[in-house]
Amino acid sequence: MNKWLKIVQHLLGACLPLPCHCVLCLRPSGRKIALCRECEACLPWLISPCNRCGLMMREGICVKCLRQKLPFERCQALFDYAWPVDEFIGQWKYAGELYFAKLLGTLMAERLSLRETVDCIVPLPLHPLRQRERGFNQTIELASQIADLKGLPLDRWSCTKIKSTPAQSSLGKAARMQYLQASVFAIDKSFQAKHVLVIEDVVTTGSTVGAFTMALKHAGVETVDIWAVCRTHPD
Ligand SMILES: [Zn+2]
Ligand SMILES: [Zn+2]
Asked: For residue range 117-127, what is the model confidence (pLDDT) as tens digits?
């Protein structure tokens, strides 16, 4: 869509309380986000995910988490990476349809919970070059929605990605691990938080959130919670 048309639409949307229509059934959603209650119930919700890594399983902690040591304390997500949520994320990240950030951020704030309060919310950093290509960092959009709704402080400046990594889908597991180390991220020396909530869109192998957690822990953070829109098996 024309860039200027988008800007005008955005400004109009901000000034006028236009009725919100559901992105799936196109009927009025009856609330502030573009998704009606009926369609919300049909999304690919994760059913009883692992308390530790967030992957779907039967109950408690998954077999893998009994054996593996994860750098973060807990990862939670709402959905499996399946239709129509994969479509929502594609439209949002690659076609710039930012209202999906509001929709998904609202559902995360409503449905996910923290066992104890956090010092701040941190969006998973995107490399500046990637951000320039895309025009925005999707995790900042998501994190600001969540921070607003939860009344928690958002820190979007203290953590940065300093090394660019190739698109993950183009790499095998071993290569991905090699690229993703804590040194990929830089944490500002003034960063004081001890308990951080990290926001990511999709967690697959967990290597990116794992590397970022390691960087936070090197900087003195003690507890890291992860919230993601989707948690999905790499295969
Ligand atoms: Zn609907
Ligand atoms: Zn697990």
From this structure: 999 999 999 99
